[in-house]
Structures are given as structure tokens and as C-alpha cells.
């Protein structure tokens, strides 16, 4: 009689803007770990043909749709940015759908553990889905420098995003593991490999 292998445990992966969490997630995926990205789930739930998109267009009007029928994120952002009630309405619609999407994607994992990546892991309470939390940590000056280089955006915008995210201290207070990403990509990848070897020795994340 074969014993079923234990269900994969879930590693939450988070970090502030420009911390390198996407690069870390990419390396976990290359090592054969099942990776689920909250941002991708948030995009999937508003794809054309999904009920959420029709609901959003009904509520905000056709002006939030592009000519090809996809969601015009910039137009929607503008509408909710100035109106807290509308933002709450949208979150009330999308958050349960995104949570379902994430749960279904995580349930498909066949690797010993799965990685769940979310930039708002702490703020949204999504860390409760994970048995263990890995925070990619970077000094704030470096976060700003990397984001400005990558996103071709203004310093004000980066600072506004940093303000909206959990503070570094808050993120670190939830962390089981911390990956300090203040060197180059090769160092980050080597650190992910080291953590992966360690994670393979754990049962249920402990």
C-alpha cells in the first residue's frame, strides 16, 4: 500500500516595491517549485469574459473598457483614486474572487511546497494562507533607486507606493525568513537556492 505524499505546504513570499521578490519567485519556479502570483490572479479575474469585468463595466460605465473589450486600468484607477467608497466597492467585488483564484491555483501544486507571491501579503492578511513567510528585504534608498530605474516613474509616485505598503518593520515582524537583497542578481539567486535546499527538509513549513 502506498502512502500518499503530504500535501504541499505554502511559503508566502513578499517584499516592498523594487525589493526583487519577482526575481526570487522566478528562481523558485526554475527550481521546480509551483509559484502562484497574487498580481496575476488579480489580472485573471478581470479578463474579458469573466463575470467581474461585466460587473465593473455595469457599475462604472463603459468608459473603463478599452476598444478591444479589456479593462482600462488607468481609467479605473482614476475613478477609485478620488473616491474611497468606489474603491471599497471594487475591493468587495474583487478580493473574494482573487482569493478563490489563488486557492485554486495553490491546490494544483505537486512540488513539496508552493510559493505564493504577493506585494500586499501583510496589508491584505493573505499571509494567513501560508505556513511560512519569506520577506525579501532591501534598504529603502535602494528600493527607490531600483524602482526609478525599472519603471520610468517619478520619485513622488514611488514614495506614494511605499507609503501605501506595509512598513519594512511591519513586514519583518511577520517574517520567518529574511532574504537581504542588497547585492546583485547572482547573489539573490544563490540565496534562493540555499533557502530551497532548507525548505525541502521541512514538513508543513516547520
From TrEMBL:
It is found in: Cytoplasm. Its main location: cytoplasm. Keywords: ATP-binding, Coenzyme A biosynthesis, Cytoplasm, Kinase, Nucleotide-binding, Transferase. One of its GO terms (cellular component) is cytoplasm. InterPro entries: Depp_CoAkinase, P-loop_NTPase. One of its GO terms (biological process) is coenzyme A biosynthetic process. It catalyses: 3'-dephospho-CoA + ATP = ADP + CoA + H(+). It holds the Pfam family CoaE. GO terms for molecular function: ATP binding; dephospho-CoA kinase activity. Pathway: Cofactor biosynthesis; coenzyme A biosynthesis; CoA from (R)-pantothenate: step 5/5. ATP binds at residues 18-23. Its EC number is 2.7.1.24. Catalyzes the phosphorylation of the 3'-hydroxyl group of dephosphocoenzyme A to form coenzyme A. PANTHER family: BIFUNCTIONAL COENZYME A SYNTHASE-RELATED (PTHR10695:SF46), DEPHOSPHO-COA KINASE-RELATED (PTHR10695). Belongs to the CoaE family. This is Dephospho-CoA kinase. It comes from Pseudomonas eucalypticola.
